[in-house]
User: Which sequence fits this backbone?
């Protein structure tokens, strides 16, 4: 698939290598991600930890035993350090601490902070846009994932973060890199190749149970295809479920609801009716706006459905092709000025950006659509 095309081909060949468009929720950054099994299970089940902090903890690759096989795209966020004491040695609030040599344990090269022009937000045309996106999602070719098959998602992502070396903090970024994910419909088998979270270029297994013998249950924050297939497609009931199950997470209930839907767009594969219903549910969240020009991680321009987190000052943007309304990717842009060390993250800083390049159903783990033929 050509990464520069705004619409992916719905099918390539027959049977096991059916490509489908990004309208099937790229989710996930994503928030997304290669999670630490033990830690994140405890966060979700025992303490209902803040969703945005989960993203930070998921990005951390040192000092946390085990992994959660549920992933999200690695999306750092500036959030309240609720678990700072409980998670000693774990990076939170988007701050990366390195040693005196400044070497980070990620396999991704670093560079200067990512920046953009802050686009103008408006509520004008929002209902019509979400209706068009929902309709496009409903009309899209959307193959059913069969037992024994895998959902394959290829994306590119980058992020900006606060880096501290010898007690000196500066702004840096992880350069754009490729991420490949394979996931079985029941969520018990998978594989991830992502230099931001894998020590090996070959990637690592996501199959369950984990090394501690745990098999976490799928939930809204870490869904499997089979789990999503059982969710209600009534927009009001769906939104009510999202509010209920994410209670206590995020900076506000409305922002967390928006983030949760965004995650379900990024690195999961909701069935067609649910995918369409997610956009209808998003239309009911207060504070949702339109940004008429937004750019994904590989430079594709589109229109964004967005919401500003008043606490972090970041605006989360879901980017769609202007004509086809296919989901291209997402990004988080700093809009408000912060205080303290985080004042380094000025308005216009892109704290996270992603682009979905390929999505397919394949017959084997680590198989790509081109190999499937």
Assistant:
């Amino acid at each position: 698939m050509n990464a520069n095309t705004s619409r992916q081909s719905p099918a390539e060949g027959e049977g096991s290598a059916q490509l489908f468009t990004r309208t099937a929720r790229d989710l996930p950054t994503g928030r997304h991600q290669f999670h630490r099994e033990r830690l994140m299970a405890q966060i979700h089940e025992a303490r209902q930890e803040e969703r945005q902090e989960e993203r930070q903890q998921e990005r951390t690759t040192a000092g946390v035993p085990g992994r959660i096989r549920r992933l999200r795209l690695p999306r750092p966020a500036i959030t309240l350090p609720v678990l700072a004491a409980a998670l000693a040695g774990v990076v939170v609030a988007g701050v990366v601490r390195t040693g005196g040599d400044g070497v980070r344990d990620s396999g991704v090269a670093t560079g200067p902070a990512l920046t953009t022009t802050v686009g103008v937000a408006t509520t004008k045309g929002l209902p019509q846009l979400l209706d068009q996106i929902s309709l496009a999602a409903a009309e899209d070719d959307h193959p059913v994932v069969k037992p024994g098959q895998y959902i394959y998602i290829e994306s590119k992502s980058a992020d900006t973060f606060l880096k501290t070396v010898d007690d000196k903090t500066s702004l840096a970024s992880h350069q754009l890199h490729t991420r490949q994910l394979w996931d079985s419909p029941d969520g018990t088998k998978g594989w991830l190749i992502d230099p931001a979270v894998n020590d090996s270029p070959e990637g690592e297994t996501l199959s369950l149970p984990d090394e501690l013998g745990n098999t976490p249950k799928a939930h809204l924050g870490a869904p499997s295809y089979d789990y999503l297939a059982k969710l209600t497609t009534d927009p009001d009931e769906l939104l009510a479920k999202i509010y209920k199950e994410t209670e206590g997470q995020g900076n506000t209930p409305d922002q967390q609801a928006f983030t949760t839907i965004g995650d379900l767009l990024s690195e999961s594969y909701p069935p067609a009716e649910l995918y369409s219903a997610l956009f209808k549910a998003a239309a009911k969240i207060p504070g949702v706006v339109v940004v008429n020009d937004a750019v994904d991680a590989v430079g594709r321009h589109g229109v964004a459905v967005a919401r500003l987190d008043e606490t972090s000052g970041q605006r989360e943007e879901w980017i769609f092709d202007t004509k086809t309304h296919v989901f291209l990717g997402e990004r988080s842009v700093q809009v408000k000025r912060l205080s303290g060390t985080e004042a380094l993250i000025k308005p216009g800083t892109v704290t996270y950006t992603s682009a979905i390049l390929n999505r397919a159903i394949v017959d084997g783990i680590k198989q790509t659509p081109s190999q499937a033929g």
